[in-house]
Design brief:
alpha/beta; 230 residues; Thylakoid lumenal 15.0 kDa protein 2, chloroplastic isoform X1; 4 strands
Length: 230
């Protein structure tokens, strides 16, 4: 899944579990290869835990890891529960990409369609897709984790054009078992690139990504599942 700067696979998070990742000092990947397998596993766990925080914050996950910022630093200014809707919704359109030109108290038809597709997908597959549109720093950020009860079967889709590619994903461990990691980078590259969403609109990019994810999760698990982004 794509980081905010460019489409390439995100680390798939242990952060979606309810347990807290151990606090460890970050070591660059090169050094990690020379450690014992158990140490590398701990490093990977730490890195994955931080990735969700930065996708939700709308900043660059890789940048935080390389600069050694702590998880506490990631929360500063990007944990705003006041931006959450009063009632539960799988789609939080803070940026207004799905409701431009609509009366704010009435959910727009695009958002309704997405909510219905997400409900059908969850009923059919058990996987939970959650969408947050934002323009950093105007985002509820980490507050969505508890609001959505993010777990191992959740896909958090953050639509934020701040750094060029609008599609950013963080997936739970159970999703990671069924969906090839290359799918997320191909999806970001096809529908998230700046040329696509600037020409067709942010809403078109989001809708196309949702349908591609839905088609992928409905594919029978096997060597060729999710091979096409459609």
């Amino acid at each position: 899944m794509g980081f905010l700067l460019q489409p390439f696979p995100l680390p798939f998070p242990a952060a979606l579990s309810t347990t807290k990742a151990p606090k460890r000092t970050f070591s660059p990947p090169i050094a990690a290869w020379n450690t014992k397998p158990s140490n590398f596993k701990n490093w990977a766990h730490d890195f994955r835990s931080k990735s969700l925080k930065f996708v939700l914050a709308g900043t660059v996950a890789l940048g935080m890891s390389l600069s050694g910022l702590s998880a506490a630093d990631a929360k500063v200014g990007v944990n705003k529960p006041e931006l959450l809707p009063k009632e539960f919704s799988p789609v939080i359109d803070v940026a207004g990409f799905l409701s431009a030109g609509q009366v704010s108290v009435i959910p727009c038809c695009k958002e309704k369609r997405l909510c219905q597709e997400i409900a059908d997908l969850e009923k059919d597959t058990g996987f939970k897709l959650r969408i947050l549109s934002q323009n950093y720093p105007d985002t509820p950020g980490l507050a969505v984790k508890d609001f959505w009860e993010v777990d191992d079967r959740t896909i958090v889709f953050v639509a934020d054009p701040t750094f060029g590619n609008i599609l950013n994903f963080n997936v739970g461990a159970s999703v990671d078992l069924d969906v090839p990691r290359s799918f997320w980078s191909r999806l970001s590259g096809k529908y998230g690139n700046m040329f696509y969403w600037k020409e067709k609109g942010e809403d078109a990019s989001i809708e196309a990504a949702v349908m591609a994810i839905s088609n992928c999760l409905r594919d029978p698990v096997g060597p060729n599942n999710c091979s096409d982004v459609k």
